[in-house]
Amino acid sequence: MYSTKSGLILGFHGCDEEIAHDILLQKIKFKPSENKYDWLGKGMYFWEHSPSRAKQFIENLHQNPQKNKPKILEPTVLGAVIDLGYCLDLTDFYSLQLLKDAYDYYIELQESSGWEILKNTNPKSEINNPDNLWRQLDCAVINLLHQIRIDNGLEPFDSVRGVFVEGNELYPTAGFRDKNHIQIAILNPNCIKGFFLPREKA
Predict the structure, then answer these.
(1) Which domain of life is it from (predicted)?
(2) Hey, which bits of the chain come out as E strands?
(3) For residues 187 and 158, is the Cβ–Cβ distance under 8 A?
(4) Percent over 90 (pLDDT), the chain
(5) Least crowded by CB within 10 Å, which of 68, 97, 151, 171?
(6) Which residues face 195 on adjacent strands?
(7) Can you state the percent helix, strand and coil of the chain, rounding each to 5?
(8) Over 90: is that where the pLDDT of 76 sits?
(9) How far is residue 81 CA from its own chain's centroid?
(10) 84: which DSSP letter?
(11) Cα 154 to chain centroid, rounded
(12) C-alpha dihedral over 137, 139, 141, 144, to 10 degrees?
């Protein structure tokens, strides 16, 4: 009952300026990410209430282009008004237990089938980074949880939300990292009520 989130939130996504404008004008649809290493499984990704983090992320991609990915010509932040709906909120104890159960089933399934058990890892280019930026295991377990609910006729999740501790210590012995954030992945496109371009404070 309490997995349905009431109220609207603001999400922010970094992308190329042309893509942002085409989404705003409804020339194209916002495409969900389906990388095997996505932190919250498949979905449309946003930073919750953090245009500055979205800006930092897309500017980093602009300065460090990825192979086999479209080049970012003009880094831009796209805002969205979002209703999380029925949410797999990984700040909630109950949701975490659902995910742990899905992990146990994943291990059982992989071992019984002789398939590889995935791990969260660092990309080679980020060898000195303390974070496991490629979340192959988390992605597989979350996607499996979605499939389990579909296969059993249970209500599917509209969104996934997670808090991530990322980056270097903010200061010596700090309990905070310089890239801590809340990320959301939207599975149900109807959760997105509208898009906008963030403005500067007057």
Answers:
(1) Bacteria
(2) 4-5, 9-16, 44-48, 75-82, 85-89, 120-121, 134-135, 159-164, 181-186, 192-196
(3) yes
(4) 83
(5) 68
(6) 80
(7) 30, 25, 40
(8) yes
(9) 16
(10) -
(11) 23
(12) -140
Question: Distance between CA atoms of 87 and 99, rounded to whole angstroms?
Answer: 13
Q: Is 158 helix (H, G, I), strand (E, B) or coil?
A: coil
Token code pair at residue 41: 């499984």
pLDDT digits (tens, 9 = 90+) for 146-179: 999 999 999 999 999 999 999 899 999 999 999 9
Does 172 or 3 have the greater pLDDT score?
Answer: 172
Determine the Cα–Cα distance for residues 170 and 18; give it in Å rounded to an integer: 34
CA dihedral of 84, 151, 39, 193, whole degrees rounded to 10: -20
Q: What is the mean pLDDT of residues 48-66?
A: 94
Q: What percent of the chain has pLDDT over 70?
A: 95
> pLDDT tens digit string along 97-120?
999 999 999 999 999 999 999 999
pLDDT at 64: 87
Q: Which two tokens stand for residue 9?
A: 């939130």
Contact 197, 53 (CB under 8 A): no
Per-domain boundaries in the chain:
7-196
- Please, how many CA atoms are within 13 Å of residue 112, restricted to the half-sphere of its CB? 6
Q: Over the Cα atoms of the chain, what is R_g?
A: 18
Backbone phi and psi for residue 63, each to the nearest 5 degrees, phi listed first = -80, -25
Within 13 Å and on the Cβ side, how many CA atoms surround 82? 30
Cα 195 to Cα 193: distance, rounded to the nearest angstrom: 7
